[in-house]
Structure formats: structure tokens, C-alpha cells
Amino acid sequence: MIKLSLLKPITALSLLLVSSYIVKAQSPEKPDDNRFTKVVLQQKLEEPMQFQILDGGKVLYAERKGKLKIYDPATNKMDVIADFAVSREYVSKKGERSEGEDGLQGVILDPDYAKNKWIYIYYSPKDVSVNRLSRFTWAGGKLNMTTEKKVLDVVVQREECCHVGGGMLFDKDKNLYLSTGDNTFSRSSDGFTPIDERPGEAPRDAQKSSGNTNDLRGKILRIHPEPNGTYTIPEGNLFPKGTANTRPEIYTMGNRNPWRLTIDSHTGWLYWGEVGPDGSNSSESRGPRSYDEFNVAKKSGNYGWPYFIGNNQAYRYYDFATKKSGELYDVQKPINNSPNNTGLKELPPAVSAMIWYPYAASEEFPVMGSGGRSAVGGPVFHKSDFANAKYLFPAYYEGKWLITDWVRGWILAVTFDENGMYKSMERFLPELTLRGPIDMKFGPDGSLYVLEYGNGYFKDNPEAELIKIEFNGGNRKPQVQATANKTAGALPLKVKLSSAGTTDSDGDVLKYEWKITKGGMLKQTFKTANPEVQLATAGVYKATLTVTDPHGAKNSKSVELVAGNATPVVKFNFTKGNSSFYFPASIINYAVSVTDKEDGSLADKRIPASQVSVAINYLSEGYDLTVVAQNQNQFDVSAQYAKAKALIKKSDCNACHAVDTKSLGPSFTEVALKYKGDKTAEGKLTKKVIDGGSGVWGDAMMPAHSSMSTNEVNSIIKYVLSFSEKKTTQKSLPVTGSYTTNVQPDQPNKGSFIFRAAYKDHGTKLAPAQFGEDIVVLRHPFVLVNNTDNANEISFNDNKSVATAKSKGAYLQLNKVDLTDIKKIEFIGADNVSAGKIEIRIDSPEGKLIGQSSSKENGSLNTIADIEVLKGKYNVYFVFTEPSARLKAISMKNL
Fold first, then answer.
1. Alpha-carbon distance 170 to 181, whole Å?
2. Rounded to an integer, what distance in angstroms lies between the CA atom of residue 247 and that of residue 217?
3. Which of 16, 150, 256, 261 is the most buried (most CB within 10 A)?
């Protein structure tokens, strides 16, 4: 007995370990990201809001401005099937009209659509202040507006307003859920709860709507539509039918702007995103900072707004008349004493959000990032919801909730524990950034469909599109690259086509086929990966490469070729001065040459000098050569703000601001003109962006950007303020002349001079005009070690600011360096360690020795070398003769 009792715990432990191993071994693995493919279905949509997927892959979607459209994958076309006359404006206190959120908000098919052909529309009629849920009969083709049956009206205010909601879905019992916003102007509440109880301020009091048990706004409603166009109330809503001062349609209350509902098909639980207010900081006298939320309702409940936010963080009562604060609201017993309340005074206890996140990085949910926010929601994935789906997501995502954010553009996969409580989250396809995702759901084919509104409120964004994300669990399509060594030339045009860069994630042996077409007619076919093509007739051709794997999966890419017109050859020639580096106050003599096979040249005067664009600019910031090359006749000085534009693109700025048109906030041009001439503006605005605030441009609240560095924000502000400068077309410089580099940057390795010459030829009857240019960048002569082109036997510190020689013979390399006028080279040591003796060689590490450091500069750790005077460009090697020597920078000198 003793032996058996001793064995029992050992056996139990062994079984536990074995079972744990089995569970772990059977846990599905996360699929490779390259098994997912983004497929663009339609582009340049016009304020898309909500969509539904029909049989055959057709997509029905609503545009806020009133159009109901359908996309047909068979024709790849989008057709308008209805155009609703909708209210889209609100009126301010001053009587000014502005664009609002109302309009055509949602569309959904009846669960029995195949039989009854009913669809439901949620929209804002133009002639009455309601948001209306109506049923229509639609059997394909145009929508017959006379079939409308008005199901439910949500009475709303059209004064200073917002927050419409509008999401719809059906559950398995054919109950219809409809989300409604709190319909409250919140921009005068300093980012805290809008509970203004002063006479005449009802539009600014969310207690009239979200906190009102007798009002349909700020709710998720649940009704059961009946065949005659009416509805009944399902069991389990928040207030039983007949309860005084309540509306029985209410399933959840205390919502600010509930967005994109979804139901877990296995549990019946309701999930949604909740768009929160705009406050960046908490206040002892007012309450918590603002959060967006992702919520779950396992049953009906009160989700707290406008008294609580996030994980039930309470606001204080605030008297807007006296500007005095009262007590914190009680989570267990919220009381609505507002004079604008028509419902119960004592409300149900508040339910905490499942996920909540502020503008700043969240401590609880760090993967959500920081910046602007607008929670959208998304679907819960279950494999059993799909039958024979071609692109079915893998088992790894079983039971996970896929959520997105309109501003941040990510998709996150949320994992729950066995009780349906939050467990973890992770990025889905981290390299994918959506642009204003506003609705997301799985289609019958298993793909994840996403409707992207674009970045910017109340306008047709060119980036707005309908996409789907397909999963391929088996053989993957090849990823194709197609290039040509030249894309234009005189007749006969010989072109080497290349498939370099084409890959296959499965490692398959691929077959290549190039088809050369002209005007849609096939001209030549090649079965090799990198053929040489000869085109004898002038015109525009398309060379299309199709790559096929052994399983039949194929992919294609094309390159355009222009035969019969050669690209002009443009060259900036330096007759005096260095063509790699600039030195302060140095004179550079230049001469531009242009030769075109059809037009002639500058030299023979067949090309007039006036048709050649020449520009020289000094940029104290980084430059973007793509921007520099965009316009033949004008150098885009905003290239110097490439860093700022990249930061704006990454941040939430474009969601609220445009360059020259007003959005939710003022345009960049308006801001620049307002602060023109104000020498303190740069510092003030930098601080304002970091801290957040409101009041300068009305009631709109700008969120804090505390996660951005002062330098980053300052870069953006400099760019914004530049719009006050009158933009004029820069006159072209002469094709032959001299230029003095009279700008000396305040920091080493920062500034650059950009020399650019360009010419666009005249084209021919059969071949379009071609564009040639030459861009020479003169860099600062102080070269940091991390800006060298190659290194051998060199170790770098973490930020690559210091290079250390591992052995004798280690080297750093600069490629194609012009040595004209360079007489000395100084080596700057680091960390109290001398750079030591360094040899300067050309062409190879063992090539010709043109100099070596021998003396220390001014008694410092730096050493300096006299070099042989040379002209022309060379690959230059800086060879260390002493192990452990440390180097920070290399400085070229022309003295």
C-alpha cells in the first residue's frame, strides 16, 4: 500500500507532463505571412461605410453621400443601384453649416434574402431629423425605392452633432442588431465627459442619449423584424417591455459611438469597437484621460458612457455653469439627474471594457501602439462557419477576434481564454497597414474582406478601396519581378528583359513566358527567363512576364517599352570643383550636355538651351530624389522636408489635416498663414502637438503626441509653417556657368547640394516623348563611418557611430569618390582612442598608396594625411595598420 501510494503522485505527474506535451505538440502553428495575399478589388471609392458580401463574391456597399453600390467580380465593375437623398450637414450655434457624419450609414441582407429579397438600409433622410432603418425589396438590378417599409426611426439632433453608429447584423435567431451613436457635441468639454446641463445646451449633454434609458441614441438596439415591416422585442433585452421610462429595443446602453458589430457564432456573444473622446490627459477635478474600447456583451448591459470609460474609470460630476467639480460617479449605481433625461434616474451597473487604449502607448496593451485612434472592430473566426471555402484561414486563428483601427491601420488578432476573457493579442500581417479601415468581415470564400475609407474625413480619398486578404494553405503563387535594361530607344530597339528577383516561397522550379504586345495584339513570345527582344517598328509595347510553377499557379507583371524615340542623354559636367563633396565658399564651374538621337544636341544648337531645365539647391535636411525628379521645370524645394512628410504619413496627421483644404482640423496652409511672421510659432506649435489641446481652431480637440520626439515634431512643424511661403516657379539656371557653395551647414554631415539638369524631348507620331535627367549630389566633406559604402574586419558599436579595427589590414571603403582638389584627409578618433596610422589606397585594399596618416591634428587623437593630387573618381580604401584603432569620421579637406 505504501509503495502504491508513493507511485500515484509520480504517475499523475507523468501523465500531466505527457498530456501537456501532447497539447503543445498539437497546438496549431502560426502560418507564414507570405501565405496571405492582399487582393485589390476596387479603388478610388467615395466615402464607403459598410458592406455585405453576396453569393458569387458580389459586394454590396453603402457610401455616406447616399449611393448604394454593388461590385461584381465577374466584370470587375462597380454599379450604382440606388441613390438616397440624405442629410449630411449639421448647423452650429452661429447658424453655420458644416459637413457632419450623417448620411447613408449601413446596409444588410435579411437572413432569408434568397427567398424574400429583403435588404435593410440605415440612413439619414433629408427632410426630417431622424436616422431611419428601412426595409426594401431588391431582387437585383436597380433598387425600387417605392418598396420602402419604415421599420424604426431614431430621433436625432442636427445641431452641432456627430456620432451616428449605423452598424447592423443578424444573429442566429434572426434578431437585428443596430448600433447608434450618442449624437452629442463633445468638443467643448475639454476632452472629458460632455454633460453640460445648462439651459439650451442639450446638444452637448450625453445624459440625454447614452445615459437615457428612454432614448435610442448611444445604444445597441436588438429587434426582431416581422414580415409586415414592423418588429417585436426579443427576450433578454436590457429593459423588459412595459418598463416605465425605458425603451424595450435597448440591448446595450452607455455607448458613445459603437462601431462594427460582430457575433461569435459559437457563443452568441456580441463584440464591437467603441470610439472614445479626445482627451489626452487625466485630471483630478474632471476624471480620466480618454480611451477607445473594444467591448463584449455576453448579455444585455450598461457600458457606462458618459459616466465611465475604459475599465470603468469614473468621471466626476461637473457643473459647466460654475466650472466646479463634484463627486465621482458610482460604478454600481450611476445616477442620471440631468434635466435632459427622460428616462430612469438610477441606471444599471456599468460593465467594464474588455480592451481600452489611449493616445499614448498602453501599458496593458502595448502592441496597439500610440497616436490617433478610432476603434473599428471586426469578425471572430470559426472554421465551422465556412463550407468548402477556397481561402479558409488556418486553425491558428480559430476563435480569435480580428480587430482594426481606422487611424492606426493595423489588424490585431485577439485571443480569449476558456471563459471568453481577454488573454493576449498580436499583429496580423505586421507589414500590412490599412488606410482608414471602416468595415471588415469574412466572405463565403474564407477571405477577409476590408473596406478602406482612406485617410481624411468627409472627402473622396484616392486611397479608398475594397480589398480582400486570401490565405493559401497549399501551393503559393510565384512572386514576379519584370524589368528591362532600357525602356525606350531608337529603331531598331534592342532590349534585354530580366526576371531577376522573381521568387517562389515553396522553392518550386518555375517556367517563364514573356509576351510582347502592341495595342493588345501579340507580337512575340519567349519561353526563357531573360530574353533579348528586338523591336523594328515604332510604337508603345508591353512586355508581360508570366511565371508558372509545376502545380499551375501563376502570376504576371509587365513593363512598358517605347520603340522609335530614344531617351535623351543629359550630363552635368564639372570643369572646376569636386563632384562628390562640397567645400564652403568654393567655386564650381559646370557645363550641361544634352544629346538626343532624334532632336539633336545642345552642342549643334538643334536643342535650344531654353528647353533644358537646370537647378542647383542647398538642402539642410535630407532629400528625396524621387521628389526632386517629379517636375522638369521646377525643383521641388519641399524635398528638404522628406523626413517630415514621412513622419506625417506614419502618424495620424492626415486623418485630421490636409495641405490646403479644411478637414476635421485646419489645413496646413491655414496654420502656416496664421503664424506667419511669428518667430515663437515653431516652439509653441511643437509643444502644442506634443501636449495636445484645443480652442485655437474652434472646439476640435487635437490629441497629444507624447510618443513622438521633440525633434520629430519640430521637423513636422517646420514643414507645416513652410506653406506660408509663396510658391513660385524657379527660373532655370544657364546650361553653362559657375556656382559658389556659400552655405556652410551648422552640423556636420547634414547639408547637401543638389545639381539637376533635365530635358524632355519632342516625341514622334508613333512614340511618346521621353525624359532624360542627371542629378549630382554633393555631400558634406565630413563623412561619418556609418555612411561609408563597405567595411571589412570592422566592428561597429550599437548605433554604428564608431568603427573599430579587428585586425591589421581592416578597412573602410568609399565607392566612386572624386578626388579632385582633395589635398588632405583627417581621421577623427573616438572614445579616447587614436585612429592610429591609416593608409589611403585606390582601386583595391592593396592598390596604389596615395597617402597615409602620420601626424596628430592639434595635439588631439585625430590624425591627418597629405594625399597625392589626383583627378577623377576612384574606389578609395582606408586601411588600418593598427588593430583596435577606433574611428568616428573621415574629413576631406581642400586646403
1. 19
2. 11
3. 256
CB atoms inside a 10 Å sphere around CB 417: 9
Q: How many CB atoms lie within 10 A of CB 580?
A: 21
Question: What's the one-letter identity of residue 579?
Answer: S
Residue 161 to residue 103: CA distance in whole angstroms: 13
Q: How far is residue 295's CA from residue 784's CA, in Å, rounded to a whole number?
A: 51
CB 553 within 8 Å of CB 563: no
- Could you tell me if 822 and 854 are in contact, meaning their C-beta atoms sit under 8 angstroms apart? no
C-alpha cell at 138: 431588391
Q: How far apart are CA 523 and CA 516, in angstroms?
A: 5
Q: How far is the C-alpha of 468 from the C-alpha of 447, rounded, in Å?
A: 6
Cell digits of residue 9: 503522485
Cβ atoms of 537 and 553 within 8 Å: the answer is no
Angstrom distance (rounded) from CA 226 to CA 209? 27
- What one-letter code names the amino acid at 404? T
| Residue tagged 573621415 (cell numbers) | 890
Omega within 30 of 0 (cis) for the link into 492: yes
Alpha carbon 348 to its chain centroid, in Å, reads 40
Look at residues 618, 616, 722, 742 and name the one whose alpha carbon lies nearest to residue 673. Answer: 722
CB–CB of 426/408 below 8 Å?
no
Asked whether 830 and 804 are in contact (CB, 8 A), the reply is no
How large is the C-alpha radius of gyration of the chain? 33
| Lowest-confidence pick of 328-337, 613-622, 643-652, 675-684 | 643-652
Is residue 622 over pLDDT 70? no
| Residue 638 confidence class, pLDDT cut points 50, 70, 90 | very low
Round to whole Å and give the CA distance between 726 and 659.
14
Nearest-angstrom CA–CA distance, 627 and 614: 16
Q: Using CA of residue 837, residue 843, residue 845, residue 846, what is the dihedral sign?
A: negative
pTM of the predicted structure, to 2 decimals: 0.68
Distance CA 377, CA 439 (A): 8
Concatenated DSSP letters of 583-637: -TT-EEEEEEEEEETTTEETTTTSS-GGGSEEEEEEESS---HHHHTS-SS---G
Is there a contact between 369 and 358 (Cβ–Cβ < 8 Å)?
no
Cis check for the bond before 306: say yes or no (omega within 30 of 0).
yes
In the block, residue with C-alpha cell 418588429 = 231
Task: Write down the mean pLDDT value for the chain.
Answer: 87
The residues that bridge with 250 in the sheet, in sequence order, are 221
Instruction: Report the percentage of the chain scoring pLDDT > 90.
Output: 63
- The answer on pLDDT for 748 being more than 60 is no
- Other beta carbons within 10 angstroms of residue 253's beta carbon come to 30
Determine the length of the chain: 895
For the chain, what percentages of helix, strand and coil (3-state, to nearest 5) are there? Answer: 15, 40, 50
Helix (H, G, I), strand (E, B) or coil at 891: strand
Q: Please report the pLDDT score of residue 628 as a whole number.
A: 42
